[in-house]
Amino acid sequence: MFFTDGRPFHRMSFSPEANLDQHWCDPDTYRVAYTYEGPDTFSYTWDVTGPRKDLLLTSALKRLA
Question: What's the pTM value of the predicted model, to 2 decimals?
């Protein structure tokens, strides 16, 4: 994934070796984990920590028939 200006944002992968990544956005750290759940479903979780934010964001995406 890239920002609109071309800078790298984070890696997106479903392989067990590469499904985790992180991004530092001053002053907070964003950690993401992707989970492949089948050909029509995947989820991801952002764990955000730092002096300004402390939250866990979970999303599940499913293709509709």
Answer: 0.81
